[in-house]
Amino acid sequence: MAVDKVRLLGDKALREISSKVTSPSAPATRRLCNRLLKIVGSQPGFGISAPQIGINDRVFIMGRPRMPAGKELKQIGKSIRVTPSWDLAFIAVVNPVVTAVSTEVEASYESCLSLPGVAALVPRHTWIEVEFKDLEGTSIKRRLRNHPARVFQHEYDHLEGIMFTDRILDTCDIVAESFVSGFHENGAPVEDLDDPVAAMKAATAGSDYDVPPDVQRESEILAAASRLSTLARRCFGPAGAGEWMGPDANGVKSNCSPTVLARAASRISSGLKLVVNPGEPVLASRALRSELVLDIPLAPAIWNRLAQYQREHSSSAGHVILFSTSLLLSGDEVDVGFALTTESYESSAAANQRSTEWTARDAETKLLAKLADRIVNIPGAEVRYVFSQRLIHPWLRMHLLERGIIAVERVSATHLAAVQELTGAHVFRSAAVLAAGSSALDVTHLGNVGAVEVLRSGSGKRLLRVQAGSRGARVASVVLCAPDEAAADELRVVAQRAIVMLKAFVHNPFALLGAGATELALATRLRQVWAKEAPTAAHASSADILASALESVVRALQPAPVSSGGLTGFDVLDELMDCKNNASKVARGWDPLLERCINPQTVLDSGPAKAHALQVGVQTAIVLFGIGSIIIEDMSSDARPR
């Protein structure tokens, strides 16, 4: 069987969203995987998807090297050398779904068979949880990390019509593939090409493909939160199948699904933006609800136009169109659906008393004028802004500017996602939506924006402030002010860690770090458990003393009350406040000792230190309980100490 030709960048099949496979175990699906295996058997690559051979089915294969014992894959971010001595085993992935992703993102070089000779630095999630079908129709769930996670995300993007170059943050990150040492060097042999099922079954094992849930995170803060979460979960005891039980305002236990918490954590990740503003006092820092402050590099003409529009109009509200594709169009462009016929050229030439020999620039200008008219005349819309992740034709930018529409190009993927979250707009991946007969470009796909203003930072830097419209999601910007650049960098790190802690708390509320919240939750839970189990008087007294000691730490820390500002909408915080209100105020046992030994003004609450202390405490308790049982047993048998 001949080897299929790989479709290259520019082919329409690479930009279409693939369809779900109705029967993963059908012979046609196996034949498709066999065709994909033939390609990676002749060309170097860790994977290939069906759209790369012109078939828009949600199918791809990905490989991992089976190496001798003692050898491991290099860390993510470093080059990965594929040599003939490595044995690549491939997995068939049909109808994949990504169910969870890490908050950590790592950048590493990637290349693609559809873009030969080019590599780019692409940010990817360090681990993902996925579900897919194999060639026998069996459902498979995996947690992938490091390089397998990167390969899976790369191939999954192909099914969504996304190329790896769409994920880069800076065009300077694009390099020649030869500059990336050892990247995809030499093809690896593929066994059993005529039997893809046998070749793919052997690749399901390996630590990179099946990671335990409590994976050690690279971040020190997240690692501490993970360890504390595990310890606190053991202290609390199981509360059901993967659910956390917490009292509501009426004292009735309610279930908080981990899926809901994960969604809330991802919303914090996508909806909370930090902007550092050096040159102003720290007390000038502020939080802006339903607003974005973007540090986008704009041309002076755009800044001047924004300032002028701000002066001339009382309101700059309107609609915004988002593009992740380039709007650099040529005269022979056919994807946008505008037919430039010879008759139209001649009639326009006669009207303008010009020669009938039209140049390519004339056709290009005519096409761009039609595109501008399409943007301006969307029924029911008042377009004010066009944001594009790529370049916009200079003539199109100036023509839109003359008609009151501000076109902003080279918007990073992070900023584009933030604007999408704020406005509710759809991100268009192709300029074909601007075609005259296209129904994709209507007012329902546009985003609503409120006021758009130009801000001046203390250092003279200009920032773009965008307010949400009627359909704006919960998005906020935190403007951090600092007297100089050094202080601004330090403040940025502190704020980023605080956001990480907030996301960890919302995602996994077993761990409540900081301000005595951990001790408070542990004490409240301890009293609930002991009251339910009705222990003996001696055990109840010991538990009460321990709970009172934990509460004494909270009082010594004197935590400020949880403010509702900026934190509304999270039921977990309401449960935390309920724990605080129900906590016992009775001081007994170790309270006098704490009052003599602890000066409240000098007590600090450290999350990592607390996690380490809890680890030591749990291990010490295990040892003491073991010794205590022996002593009690010896005393009951009237044994004498030796």
From TrEMBL:
- Keyword annotations: Hydrolase, Metal-binding, Protein biosynthesis
Output the superkingdom of the source species: Eukaryota
- EC number(s) reported in the record: 3.5.1.88
Q: Which InterPro entries match?
A: Cpn60/GroEL/TCP-1 (IPR002423), GroEL-like_apical_dom_sf (IPR027409), GROEL-like_equatorial_sf (IPR027413), Peptide_deformylase (IPR023635), Peptide_deformylase_sf (IPR036821), TCP-1-like_intermed_sf (IPR027410)
| Pfam family of the protein (one) | Pep_deformylase
Q: Per the UniProt entry, what is one GO biological process?
A: translation
Molecular function terms from GO: ATP binding; metal ion binding; peptide deformylase activity
Q: Which reaction does it catalyse?
A: N-terminal N-formyl-L-methionyl-[peptide] + H2O = N-terminal L-methionyl-[peptide] + formate
**Any single Gene Ontology cellular-component annotation:** mitochondrion
Asked whether the keyword Oxidoreductase is assigned, the reply is no
HAMAP family hit by this protein: Pep_deformylase
Protein function? Removes the formyl group from the N-terminal Met of newly synthesized proteins.
NCBIfam families reported in the protein's UniProt record: PRK00150.1-3
Q: Which family does it belong to?
A: Belongs to the polypeptide deformylase family.
**Protein name (Swiss-Prot/TrEMBL):** Peptide deformylase
Which organism is this entry from? Hondaea fermentalgiana
